[in-house]
């Protein structure tokens, strides 16, 4: 298993898929270290240790390369969520980027509207996203939301729900600033530690639950997803709205 994992790491390395390659190198090294512990043949141990040393050196080089890309604002990681895939709740997708220094978040999504609209449950999804931020480990103090007004009679409910979310967040010491734009099209989420995440479907990449008491209604990790692509970037300075 260790040999297969490092073989995959090398393939990803050659393909310049460095983030995925690094994960495979790390997993492969751990597996090979277990093999070394269980091996009594000293010659084999020596060969394994040499290979492990080589892989560790390459993994360290990749780490430095990724860090440089972050510093230069060139880092890019892409995640593809397949149709009906599960296990992609907000915590799974965002948690590694929500470091303790995150205190400010920007959300751009034109469809944070009614809960019963055809596109999904985006007001509930936005609430779930805010709950994740409140739980930490980040220390979010301000959330900026840029969205568009609901058309027609739904605007009143949209404003009422967003105001309720705003008041609830204030109980946790978090300020929600809400702005509206009639021309907004892009969907992205930015953190003030330099991470920016673009999701093709915004926060609404989950399928409609089968019912209010069906598995996946409450736990988004169990909710089937629509097919979409997630692009993660790192920039020196996160622009503000």
UniProtKB/TrEMBL annotation:
User: Which residues belong to any copy of the MIT domain?
Assistant: 1-71
Q: Where is the signal peptide?
A: none
Give the transmembrane region(s): none
**InterPro entries, sorted:** MIT_dom, MIT_dom_sf, MIT_domain_contain_protein1, MITD1_C, MITD1_C_sf, MITD1_N
Pfam families in UniProt: MIT (PF04212), MIT_C (PF16565)
Instruction: State the PANTHER family in the record.
Output: MIT DOMAIN-CONTAINING PROTEIN 1 (PTHR21222)
Protein name as annotated: MITD1 protein
